[in-house]
Amino acid sequence: AQGPIETDAIIIGAGPVGLFQVFELGLLEIKAHVIDSLPVVGGQCVELYPDKPIYDIPAVPVCTGQELTDNLLKQIEPFEPTFHLGQEVTVVQKREDGRFDVETSTGTQFITKTIFIAAGVGSFQPRTLKVEGIEQFDGSQVFYRVKDPSKFEGKNIVICGGGDSALDWALNFVGKAESVILLHRREEFRAAPASVAKMKELCEQYEMQFLVGQVTGTEIKDGKLAEVKVTGADGVTRRLPLDMLLVFFGLSPKLGPIAEWGLDIERKQLKVVDTEKFETNVPGIFAVGDINTYPGKKKLILSGFHEAALAAFGAAPYIFPEKKIHMQYTTTSPKLHKILGVE
Ligand code: FAD
User: Fold this and answer.
1) How many Cβ atoms are within 10 Å of 116's Cβ, its own excluded?
2) How far is the C-alpha of 87 from the C-alpha of 123, rounded, in Å?
3) Which residue ranges form the domains of the chain, and what is each CATH number?
4) Whose CA is nearest to atom 32 of ligand 1?
């Protein structure tokens, strides 16, 4: 197995603030590894509103969540950050040498001098089905994401949800699975109209079925989930035999493991010691963006950008104890031009 990656800085969260943290650290010649539990960068901007316009980014009259993210990625390109996506940071532990051990849910390990928590509202996790006893089938018969589509071939599958993920997977499995039933609590969908139309067409051809209703119970036989009980809009509960249940109820953020790292927390937010460095109560760990709290805090992207700049200066002494750090203008500093590769 590969040993831990040694680095000066780790950024937890690849939302707009985590991405801009790369830039501010880069100007100070600090390289960073960026970790996010989502498979893509952009945080809330990409997960919650990729196509919606943002009007309050200074000097950018309007841009969408996706455009902001793309521009940030372009801006940080010179600093060559390493991204570790699709993995949640689970462990942060102070070492005897003053650095930190960091570990992710997929087993990637780091030793770092500083940590920047830009975790926003927490890591996005799939919303689960709230039915008693269903958890025991997680990963065997009940799934919240599809890692290996071949697992579902030839199976009788029930897919819950009314968004794009539910529709896309339902359409995808028609013809591959033994049977496909889409189950949604109402007739209206939050998915692309073309997918909804395709689904209805397949239902008319008896290739799949659509039912209005909610899972309200289970039937377990020989330790297996044999049936789900579905209560329809008419109030009648029916039994639905199945092999696999796929649930796509969207993602909801959870503070998750961050709560266990010995940091001062106030109403699910990380308290920073001051607004000079945005350092937490643990020296060497900084909190920026939506995750932090201090008197006057506003959960705005521009506030996060400012915090990232000051946190970078605050962290520099941990990485370069001997060096005196001066602020320089990107416009005029030959040194910064070199760093930015714009000489
Ligand atoms: P986030 O964008 O929340 O990103 C945090 C990232 O950290 C996430 O990707 C998450 O998966 C990851 N993460 C968390 N915990 C872990 C962990 N343990 N391990 C790995 N990864 C983890 N703001 C404005 O300024 N202007 C606007 O017009 C505006 N419009 C908005 C509209 C909507 C609909 C919403 C929901 C928000 C809007 N906001 C707006 C707020 C803005 O999106 C947030 O302030 C901003 O996204 C915060 O950025 P962030 O980088 O701090 O956190």
Assistant:
1) 30
2) 10
3) 5-124+252-340 (3.50.50.60), 128-249 (3.50.50.60)
4) 49
What separation in Å is there between the alpha carbon of 43 and the centre of ligand 1? 5
- Dig out the tokens for 124 from the structure: 């996005």
Burial of 150 (0-12, 13-18, 19+ CB in 10 A): exposed
pLDDT level of residue 123 (50, 70, 90 thresholds) = confident
Q: What is the ipTM of this complex?
A: 0.99
First-to-final CA distance of the chain: 41
Residue 36 annotated as lining a ligand binding site:
yes
Instruction: Ligand 1, residue 104: give the atom nearest the CA.
Output: 19
Q: What is the pTM of this model?
A: 0.81
Distance 59 CA to ligand 1 centre (A): 20
Closest CA to 160 of 183, 140, 142, 178: 183
Note the pLDDT tens digit of each residue in 125-166. 889 999 999 999 999 999 998 888 999 999 999 999 999 999
How many whole angstroms separate alpha carbon 31 and alpha carbon 49? 29
The residue written with tokens 């201090």 in the block is 294
Residue 290 labeled ligand binder? yes
Pocket perturbation via mutation, ligand 1, pick of 12, 22, 44, 66 by most ligand atoms within 8 A of CB: 44
Length of the chain: 343
Residue 246 has pLDDT above 70, yes or no: yes
Q: Is the pLDDT of residue 343 over 80?
A: no
Nearest to residue 88, comparing CAs of 103, 100, 105, 101?
A: 105
- Provide CB contacts within 8 A for 230, sequence distance 6+: 183, 211, 213, 214, 215, 216, 237, 238, 239, 240
- CB count in 10 Å sphere of residue 71: 15
The answer to the question of whether 44 is labelled as a binding residue is yes
pLDDT at residue 1 in the model: 58
Q: Report how far residue 339's alpha carbon sits from residue 263's, in angstroms, rounded to the nearest whole number.
A: 34
**CA atoms of 261 and 280, how far apart (whole Å):** 11
253 — pLDDT class (breaks 50, 70, 90):
confident
Atom of ligand 1 minimally distant from the CA of 300 = 25
